[in-house]
Amino acid sequence: MGFEGFLGILAVVALFIVSAFFGSDGTDSKGNEQLDKLDDGMGNVIADGEHMTREEAEDAQARGELYDTYL
After folding, report:
1. pLDDT tens for each residue of 15-36
2. Residue range of the domain that includes 46
3. What is the mean pLDDT of the chain?
4. Could you tell me which residues belong to the region Disordered (predicted)?
5. CA dihedral in degrees (48, 53, 55, 59; nearest 10)?
6. Cβ(29)–Cβ(61) under 8 Å?
7. Residue 44 lies in a domain
């Protein structure tokens, strides 16, 4: 294993450490928790009286259109 191999391994380890350090800030789990609370039990979401699929709700949430909504 030469110097290039060592640098390759070092780069992979550095990327792993950086991704672990900066990876998730908890917003995904908070967003999923919100959608779980609005789930109708059949894979759909009801937010402020509007029925939508889970995918539509995730898209709306990503655009910032789902706030603290209630059934």
Report:
1. 888 777 776 555 556 668 888 8
2. 3-63
3. 80
4. 48-71
5. -30
6. no
7. yes
